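Hey, quick one: can you model this chain's 3D structure?
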Amino acid sequence: MRSPSKSSAAKPPAAKPAKAKAEPAPQQDAPRAAPGPRPVLTISSKNYSSWSLRGFLLCRLAGLDVELRTVPIDDPNNRAELLLLAPSVLVPRLDHNGVSIWDTLAIAETLAERRPESGMLPMDKIARARCRSISGEMHSGFANLRSALPMNLKARYTRFQIFAGAVPDIERIQAIWQECLDLYGGPYLFGATPTIADAMYAPVCTRFITYGVKLPAASKAYCDTILDWAPMREWLAEAVAEPEELEELDMEF
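Sure thing. Here's the predicted structure for all 253 residues.
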């Protein structure tokens, strides 16, 4: 019997065509949460309130777009705070994400915690500790400087006699600045960009200008840097336009 020829050999069954895979349904963007209410920073006076200025600078450092609300200058509590007659300072107050924060250093730490990428505190842990230390010193100290040289951005006194009790405060502040500028290279206290410490000491720069305090070259250069800082220029321009006056802080010295 002959073997079957190649042509008559049985062919394997043809493979069935693979089923086409179903195309995935196009993904839709997840619905975005509705933005919350705009943060509100309550201040007392742009011309007289050093704490309000600090709160504003801290919000700007954090990149926080805040609505400013001003307490009337003739409000009894506001007046007492501006004249250093109140036991505590309740402005500035930041209302943000359902939380009310009214102490300037608390505002600073809260914003630095929520926005660590903002650089409000130095990255280096030793520098960060120093930044917190000198900020705390400004927050709780220098009482003689505050009372002898009250903040008044509109005023300029060329022959002001500085109270002897304020001189050690001025010298200590200049020593802090010099040490930081030497360690971190300036032009800000902790290097090339501003931090919480610069926001805390910025009103002191304005006091030194207002009362014509003689400064060494490094301190003068630092003050110039702070006064040319964009949020400072914004605040100063609006303070000059502020109509309210507080007679006790506008007397001729």
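One thing worth noting: The domain at 40-240 is CATH 1.20.1050.130 (Glutathione S-transferase Yfyf (Class Pi); Chain A, domain 2).
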